[in-house]
Structures are given as structure tokens and as C-alpha cells.
Amino acid sequence: MQTCAWLVVLVCLALLVAEPVRAQTTRADTAAVLLDVATRLRQEGRASLSRSLLDLIVERYAGTPAAASAAQLRAQGQTAADERSGRTELLVWSTVYGMALGAAIPAALDAREPAAYGIGLLVGVPAGFGLGRAMTRGRSVSEGQARAITFGSIWGAWQAFGWREVFDIGNPDPECTVVESNEFCFERDAEASTVLKATILGSVAGVGTGLLLARKPIQSGTATTVNLGALWGSWFGAAVAILGDFDEDDQALTWTLLGGNAGLVATALLAPDWNLSRSRARLISISGVAGGLAGAGVLLIFEADGNNAILMPLVGSIAGLALGTHWTRNYDERMPANDDGSGSALLHWSDGAVKLGTPAAIPTLLRNESGRVTPAVHVPLFQARW
To answer: For residue 161, what are the domain limits?
Structure first.
């Protein structure tokens, strides 16, 4: 009789232990079935439904093997969504670039006749469009690759313009006059045609560099990060020059050029490992801009002068970049592949933590007391998820 009692106890204990295991197994099996359906939908080209299922699996079945696989598939989908074709962007840029060269080349050659500029435009526009067609024919061009080429043209032109000024390339010999046995010499600036020639050559060199870089895959987020890094490097270089009172012999311009190139190289080496999305890179950058403007506001309030005139915006921009990086640390993970940010709120409560988001205006309709429907805009400020 005692043996039977022990058997009953053991059976009851086994049932109690098996119940959570069975529940967990059922939960994992459900997630696995949903993952299989999402994978099939993705293979059939129904990407929107597939992404919705992946979001559901990650949120409702966290901790299961299927949830981990769904998170990976969702991240791949986000990358694929970011890597839109850059063919249209490249065609538009090449056409505008051809038009700009069509007007700049006659000016660089000191053309005086309007017909020269007319011929330049007639030749430059179709030539630029043809260049874009040639770059995109027979190959797919991602958004990141297109931006590497377009930014290369701008950066090359700026670098050529700046370094020509620093080294006085093409400047005429100084003009010297003798007054009462004393010789006075004055520097002469280069002619506009000389400046245009250097700028054109630098721009063409930048396009060539961009084409070489675009031979390898470049994510749009990486391209945006590098472009913004070059601009921020230029700002930091200029700020250091002002703080150090480097205002002789184009020293401020030299520091600006060196800072921009340092920012470009540094972000080009580090950005692939950071793997920032384009949206997050822009959010971090705009946080830096906001911080710099806040520093300028403090400067105006306290009427600071001297080095403080540049130190406050510099510190503010650095703080803004740091805070932007911290605030958006989980931005790419919490933004599903099919979410363009239109449904996010300024403050988002999830998993016991409050996170900062990017609210967007959503068109809606409101019914007033008389029953009349009027258009309105809804801006979500707070969103919670349990």
C-alpha cells in the first residue's frame, strides 16, 4: 500500500514537472511554425507579410530559438531595405554634373563668347547622362555606392580648391614697388580661371576615387556615416585652428582641410564595423548640430568672447554627438524592417525602460461637436508596450 502511495506521488510530481516543459515546447513549436510561414512568404516575394510575422515572433516568443532566427532575418531585411538601388540617384547626379562641367570648362578657359557656354551645355548634359548610363549598365549600383561617387565629386572639388589656396598654386608673382629706396611687395590672388581649373581637376579626381571605391559593396549607412564624418572633421579642424589662433598664412584653412580628411579616413575605417543605418547616422549628426546650436545660444546669453566664442559651440557639438550616440544605441534593433518610423513616439516605454524615439506627423481625421469631419495631424508623444 505504501509502495502505491509513493507511485502516486511520483506520477503527480512528473505531471507537475512536465506541464511547464510541455507549455514551453508548445510555445517554441508555435514560433517555429510561424517562422516557417514567414520564410515561405519571403521566398514568394510577399515581403510585407513576412516582416510582420517576424516582428510578431520576436515580440511574442522571445527566448525561443525561432525568435533568435527571426531577429536575424529581420536584420537582413532591414539591410536589404536600406540598400535600395542608387541608379536613379546616380543618373540625376551625372546629368547635373555634366551640366556644371559644361558651364565651368569654358569659364576655366577664359571663354568670352556666349556661344562657348551654349556648346558646353549642349555637350555636357547628354555627356553627363551618358556617363551615368555607362556606370549603371550591366551592374547593380546600391545607394551607398552611388553616394560614394557623388560625394567624391564634391569632396575632390573642395580639397583641390583649398590646397591650391594653401600652397598658392597658380598665383601670379608678387607685385613690388619701390618707395624711397624701400621695396614693398604685395601678394596677388590667382585669376578665377585658375581656381576653376583646380576645382574641376579635383572634382574629376574625386569621381575617379569614388568609382574605385564603388567597385566593392558599400552600405548606405556606411556611406552616410563617412560623408558626415568628413564634415564633422572639417568643423573640428576649423575650431582647433581658431582656438589655437592659427590665422597666419592660411593656417585655419589648412587645419580645416586636414581635419576633414582625418574625419573621412577615420570613419571610412571604422564605419563598416559600426554598421550604422542611414537613419541612425543622421540622428546622431543632427544631435551634434543641436548641441552646437545650444552652445551658441549659451554664448549669446552670456555674451562670451575670445576663445569662448568657439569653445562653447565646440563642446556643445561634441556633447550632442555623444548623447545622440547614447540615445540611439538600440535604434536599429527596435525599428522593424517594415517600420519607417511614422508610428514611433517621442517617448517609448517597453520592457520596463523609457526610450527616446523620433515622432512623425501622421495625417488623421477628427470629428467636431457638430459632426463635421476635418483633417488633422497626429503627433504621438508617448507609446507603451507590454
So the answer is: 84-218
> Which CA distances in Å does 8 have to 4, 5, 12, 303?
6, 5, 6, 86
Same domain, 212 and 226: no
Q: What is the separation of C-alpha 78 from the centre of its chain, rounded to a whole number of angstroms?
A: 15
In a domain, 342, yes or no: no
Torsion angle, alpha carbons of 128, 131, 137, 141, to 10: -80
Overall number of domains in the chain: 4
Q: What is the pTM of this model?
A: 0.65
| Angle between helix 143-166 and helix 251-274 axes, rounded to 10 deg | 160
| Average pLDDT over every residue of 354-376 | 57
| H helix intervals, 109-219 | 114-136, 143-166, 192-213
Q: Do residue 238 and residue 312 come from a single domain? A: yes
Instruction: Please report which helix (H) or strand (E) contains residue 356, including its range.
Output: strand 353-356
Q: Could you tell me if 63 and 129 lie in one domain? A: no
Mean pLDDT of 137-157: 88
- Residues 293-315 have pLDDT tens digits of 999 888 888 877 766 688 889 99
255 and 208 within one domain:
no
**234 and 327 fall within a common domain:** yes
**How far apart are the C-alpha atoms of 176 and 183, rounded to whole Å?**
6
Nearest to 230, CA basis, from 273, 274, 285, 275: 285
Grid cell 579635383 — which residue? 202
C-alpha 269/C-alpha 372 separation (Å) is: 58
